[in-house]
Every structure is written in structure tokens, then in C-alpha cells.
Specification:
By secondary structure, this protein is an all-alpha fold. It contains 14 helices and no strands.
Length: 277
């Protein structure tokens, strides 16, 4: 902590000029796809915990867009840290019962200040791991429970659905563990290589991402194994999401003054996927 500076301001190019390689690009694209899948789930979980109606498509697109802008700015300044939604924050909403955007805004300002004050940032980074582990134990448990609660719409007495849920959960947990161990072993890792470095990086990112593997298996099985809409939960889900048709309520909760002001002055912006039309 004594070696940390009091003030530190990040700026573009502090680690040299940006370099773009095909392998790095392909690997980052795979990581971004996994981040998008996680973020969509986080948006729905956040709305559910905050008592808000499910976010419409343009809200999901707007969130993904802002995450992309944040990742671009992060890479421009050098750290290369992905700016995306964090499930830990969703768990914090469940624990504190606070979902106010004003609180989130104040927290963001506080984190910016901590990031500039080097010694303060090091102090929080030196927090003992048992304390962090205790918080994660509760938060990730709540997040997992919220995700599982979405299965209330499907018919859990159907052997088809039980098979899909079991296989997707099992592969999502086991395949990343196997991939990490296989990539550590030089002989096994060599047998998995195809000779194309970019493709090998893509495969490694996909296989080590539990959410990508589980979601891909579940999506594939759900769309290939025959089943009725009621059995798949589509009917109940549409009925539960009728709140999305309440435009005044959506405008009250998901209103963004800056974008709406631009859309009123330039109606053609309504055609963009992240603007309410």
C-alpha cells in the first residue's frame, strides 16, 4: 500500500499504441458473445428482483450497446478489462433490497473516485479473501435461485424438460472443468489443436465458458426435441410478460431522457434497435 500513488488518471495510449491481431480479435469475439448471454440473463434477473416488468427488446439492445461502448473505452485506455454487467451486483440488489438507479449512480461515482485515488483503491483491493468469499457465497446462491425460478414457466413433470435441464446443467459444469484441465496438460492440449491458432483460441474460450456451453446445449435440445408450446413454457411465459404491453409503465421505468430527446428531434432514430419506436 505504501508503494501506491495517491492519484492516478488513466489516459488513452498509456501502454503504447493499440495493436489488433486476428487471434486476439477472434478470442475477444467469443468472450463478448459469452458476456452478452450473461448480460441478458442479468437484465431479466435485475428487473425481477427490483419488481419491474421484464425489459423489452430495445432496452436489452441499449444495454448491450452501452457495454460495447464501455469495452471500447476500456481498451482505448489500456487495461483491456471487459465492461459488462456483473452478477455480483444483481446479488447485491437481492441482499439489500435496494434497486434505485440513484443509488447505482452514486456507487458508480464512488468507484470512479476510488479508481483515481490509488491508495484508497489498494486498501479495498486488500480486503481479506474470506470476507469476499462469504459475500459471494450468498450472492451467487441468490443469483442461481433467481435463474432457476425462471423454470416455473415450463412443465417440470415432463420427462423431455427434465432431460434438457439435466443435460444442459451437467455439461455447463463439467465441460469447462475438463477443458481447463485438458489445456493445462501439454499432450492433451496438443491433441486438441487444429493448427489454426485463431480457431484454437476460439474453441478454448467456448469450452471454458460454462454459460456458453450450457446455454448452447439447452437451446439446441429445446429446439430439436419435439414439445408443445405449453410444455416448453412459451404459453405461460407470454402470459406472464403481458406487463410489457403497458407502455406508460415501461416509459416510467425504462425512460432515458437523453435518447428520447434526440429521438423526438430526429424521428428517424426510432428505427434504431435500441430506441423505443
Amino acid at each position: 500500500m505504501s508503494e501506491a500513488t495517491w492519484f492516478y488518471f488513466p489516459y488513452p495510449g498509456q501502454f503504447g499504441m493499440p495493436r489488433v491481431t486476428l487471434g486476439g480479435f477472434v478470442g475477444m469475439v467469443a468472450g463478448v458473445i459469452g458476456g452478452v448471454i450473461e448480460s441478458i440473463g442479468d437484465y431479466y434477473a435485475c428487473a425481477k428482483l427490483a419488481g419491474a416488468p421484464p425489459p423489452p427488446k430495445y432496452i436489452l439492445n441499449r444495454g448491450i450497446l452501452m457495454e460495447g461502448v464501455g469495452c471500447f473505452l476500456s481498451g482505448l485506455c489500456g487495461p483491456g478489462i471487459g465492461v459488462t454487467s456483473y452478477s455480483e451486483n444483481i446479488g447485491a440488489i437481492a441482499l439489500t433490497k435496494v434497486g434505485s438507479r440513484m443509488v447505482i449512480l452514486c456507487s458508480a461515482i464512488l468507484m470512479l473516485v476510488i479508481g483515481v485515488l490509488g491508495k484508497v483503491g489498494v486498501f479495498f483491493a486488500s480486503m481479506p479473501e474470506p470476507i469476499i468469499g462469504g459475500m459471494y457465497l450468498v450472492m451467487f446462491g441468490v443469483i442461481a435461485a433467481v435463474g432457476i425460478s425462471n423454470l416455473q414457466f415450463v412443465d417440470l413433470t415432463s420427462s423431455r424438460n427434465i432431460f434438457i435441464i439435466g443435460i444442459s446443467l451437467f455439461t455447463g459444469l463439467v465441460v469447462p472443468m475438463w477443458a481447463e484441465e485438458a489445456l493445462k496438460d501439454p499432450e492433451t492440449a496438443k491433441s486438441l489443436q487444429t493448427g489454426n491458432e485463431e480457431f484454437d483460441q476460439l474453441v478454448a474460450v467456448v469450452l471454458t465458458g460454462g454459460m456458453i456451453v450450457g446455454a448452447a446445449i439447452a437451446c439446441f435440445l429445446d429446439n430439436t426435441i419435439p414439445g408443445t408450446d405449453k410444455e416448453r413454457g412459451m404459453t405461460n411465459y407470454k402470459d406472464a410478460n403481458k406487463a410489457c404491453s403497458d407502455k406508460p409503465l415501461l416509459k416510467k421505468i425504462y425512460y432515458e431522457p437523453g435518447i428520447e430527446l434526440l429521438a423526438q428531434r430526429f424521428p428517424m432514430l426510432r428505427k434504431l434497435p435500441f430506441v423505443n419506436n
